[in-house]
């Protein structure tokens, strides 16, 4: 699920925030966040003739909320202007209009840094100026997250480990398992913080400083109630975890974390 800020429509009107849901039927649904009503539905299977891989598809929203991107390693990227639902890219995103396979795009919480992954190459760039910051060669990327407060890009290569790289220096900071070997892990970055919060099926919720891998906080629950989803509030003060067994949502107050060097 993605959330957009309030936005100005072409006629000058102010639209409320939108929610974007990517469901199991491979449909994207745009929801009016204030009324809870559906505004738009896009059937990706019809657009791509069923060629998208559900396990490798990513939905991304540009920082201004006006461009929705869907990337998949097996088809050409799809882009929409969400104000009028026309295909196309804003000027700041024209670099993504490439014939090469684009697998992943992500933006930092402060809208200043962006990352894009083509097969074998991860590029970090300044979203405002378009200037390249750093490129990394990597064989596979399952997920990318940016933590600008620590100048860190997190690279999940689809295994049990996550790599942390400093995108200014190019140095690898750590390559670790957040919750032990071969454990199911969900994680999210924390806005306005140099940290991430994660939950594993070992029954722990952990806050980790991104540059040093230092543990800033940890909570333990029954391993049989491990979290299957995790999300962080826009102000970075709270995390919510969803648990299937039993079906409940837990709210966690996040600590203030100071960036450290390793």
Give the structure's gist in a few sentences.
With 262 residues, the chain is mainly β. The chain contains 1 helix and 25 strands. It has a domain at 2-184: 7 Propeller (Methylamine Dehydrogenase, Chain H), CATH 2.130.10.
List the helices and strands and how they pair.
Layout: E1 2-3, E2 7-8, E3 14-15, E4 18-22, E5 27-32, E6 38-43, H1 44-48, E7 58-61, E8 67-72, E9 75-81, E10 86-87, E11 102-107, E12 113-118, E13 121-126, E14 132-137, E15 143-147, E16 152-156, E17 162-166, E18 172-176, E19 185-189, E20 195-200, E21 204-209, E22 215-220, E23 227-232, E24 238-243, E25 248-253
Antiparallel strand pairs: 1-4, 2-3, 4-5, 5-6, 7-8, 8-9, 9-10, 11-12, 12-13, 13-14, 15-16, 16-17, 17-18, 19-20, 20-21, 21-22, 23-24, 24-25
Structural notes for this entry:
The protein is mainly β and 262 residues long. The chain has a domain at 2-184: Methylamine Dehydrogenase, Chain H, CATH 2.130.10. It contains one helix and 25 strands. The chain starts with a strand and ends in a 9-residue tail after the last strand. The mean pLDDT is 84.
């Amino acid at each position: 699920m993605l959330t957009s800020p309030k936005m100005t429509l072409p006629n000058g009107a102010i639209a409320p925030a939108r929610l974007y849901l990517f469901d199991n039927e491979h449909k994207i649904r745009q929801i009016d966040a204030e009324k809870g009503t559906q505004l738009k539905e896009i059937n990706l299977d019809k657009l791509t003739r069923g060629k998208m891989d559900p396990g490798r598809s990513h939905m991304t929203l540009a920082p201004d909320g006006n461009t929705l991107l869907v990337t998949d390693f097996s088809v050409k990227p799809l882009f929409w202007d969400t104000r009028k639902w026309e295909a196309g890219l804003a000027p700041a995103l024209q670099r993504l209009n490439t014939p090469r396979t684009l697998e992943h795009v992500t933006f930092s919480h402060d809208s200043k840094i962006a990352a894009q992954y083509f097969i074998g190459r991860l590029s970090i760039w300044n979203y405002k100026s378009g200037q390249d910051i750093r490129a990394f060669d990597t064989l596979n990327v399952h997920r990318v997250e940016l933590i600008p407060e620590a100048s860190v890009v997190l690279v999940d290569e689809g295994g049990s480990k996550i790599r942390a790289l400093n995108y200014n220096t190019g140095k690898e900071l750590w390559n670790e398992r957040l919750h032990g070997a071969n454990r199911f892990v969900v994680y999210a970055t924390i806005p306005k913080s140099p940290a991430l919060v994660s939950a594993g099926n070992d029954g722990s919720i952990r806050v980790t400083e991104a540059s040093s891998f230092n543990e800033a906080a940890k909570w333990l629950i029954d391993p049989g109630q491990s979290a299957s989803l995790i999300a962080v509030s826009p102000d970075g003060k709270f995390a919510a975890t969803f648990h299937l067994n039993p079906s409940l949502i837990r709210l966690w107050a996040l600590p203030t974390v100071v960036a450290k060097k390793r």
